[in-house]
Design brief:
By secondary structure, this protein is mainly alpha-helical. Helices cover about 45% and strands about 10% of the residues. The protein binds one RNA strand through helix 4, strand 5, strand 7, strand 8 and helix 6.
Amino acid sequence: MTTRVRFAPSPTGYLHIGSARTALFNYLYARHTGGKFLLRIEDTDLARSTDESTRSILDGLAWLELGHDEDIVFQSDNADKHRTTALKLLAEGKAYRDFTPKAEPSDANVKDAIKDRARAGQGEKNMRDNPYRDLSDEENDARAAAGEPFAIRLKVAATGKTSFEDSVYGSQERDYTETEDLVLLRSDGHPLYNLAVVCDDIEMQISHVIRGQDHLTNTHKQVLIYEALGITPPTFAHLPLIMAPNKGKLSKRKHGEVVSMTTYHDAGFLAAAFRNFLALLGWSAGEEQEIYTLAELIDKFSLEGIHRSNAVFNFTENDPRRWTDDKAQWMNAEYIRTMPLTDLLPFIKPELKAAKLWRDEYEDDDKEWFENTINLIRQRFFTLKDFSSQGRAYFSEDYDFDPAAIEKNLTKFPDLRTWLPELADRFGAEFENKPFNEENIETVVKTFTEEKDTKLGVIMNGARTLLTGVAVGPSMLSVFETLGKERSIMRLRSQVVWN
RNA sequence: GGCGCCUUCGUCUAUCGGUUAGGACGCGAGGUUCUCAACCUUGAAAGAGGGGUUCAACUCCCCUAGGCGCUACCA
């Protein structure tokens, strides 16, 4: 039997980092086993679900290149089937009508209500004390016929236990007394989560349910529904959660944009790098390798390699340098400077285009120059954004000067005001018939430096600041050659920073 | 409160009874150097606590503590 897994987000926000990892693991497992990776949008909570969220989730998955098989299933489209199933269970006596009037939710504080009830309960409570559980058939039918609203609850047996084998957490058991007669169908006829999930997973012939560990206890309820339906449950594999640095819940409300996939897209992360990082949060191949291609991840992925303990997504709020996990940032930089250039270029183009720095010659007459330049500057970049910001001086004459760099490398050495234009003249004279390459430039600059009886660093750093606007960057010999004779000379003569 | 799950460097992790407890990120030092990265060398940094079992425990068992999850006519 081929494996069929699904990623089933509820569209109540953008793609959260934890959901993204769940999707990734499902995808990897499907590809590893040669099975199908399906997508289901769990939009049964009409009040909270939005099309915008669905779109955002789809965008996130597309960005991560986690392509799904078959058509997307919208859970709300299956509501009729869910209802039918609930009614079938009712007819078979495996569920019952609960005529208890629906309690209006005390607004947003449902969590508090649960807490209060728990405290008041002081422990054990009888999960089978619903007065309607064993109502006589006559009264039951009569009340329903009279139009009295009712919810449908699963009739959980008084004694016994549910059990299942979790591929990550091992053998799981839960006594029936710990599980309430869960509501299958709301009194307004609306199917609830656990019913919907089970029905859809059956319908979609899901073989492995891989989802967050927050569903571990839900699983017992779902197993109960499978049993009532007489269907063998799929294999379950629960994933450890991804936590905030304080080991608390990682949420948009508390932590903002760091948890959203779109943030990483917008910040100039490479999907491949972020995917690599995500794969290592809660899973390992049991070896010391850190950088994995997608093919390697697919090849090495296994449920056995998934951890049981939660992982912290490490970042420091209010620290711009550490706005997200250090390792994710490192991995992105690692990808940018080491991946095949031809794989990187398609990401550079839109970045430069967006910054109005793109020229079509970069793919034509200036292709070689462009690729050499990208290859040169990518060595110290962290995100795709850097190509249009820090790399601006390579693609435009309109670049900014860093005041600190000017202070450190130019105004501190007043002689440079005349020396650099002089060097420009020297370049003009020396390179009339000689190639303007690193080797020749080095000879000229060294001679010039000796004539001025100064240090090489003074000339180089001064030139770097003038030619690129910043104090850091590639070797100046490379910068000169990359910018070319004309641009180098022109910029060396510039007096703009001296005024 | 109840039930369940979890616990190795700051963080991500390796170890599936016998290791100087390894790697990565980050941090420190040195090297290289025209700057900054990269790179190389290197340093600091961990088995929550307590009982067992065993010749031997990070590894198996129990207890405690802590963390997390669930406990809705939400998903």
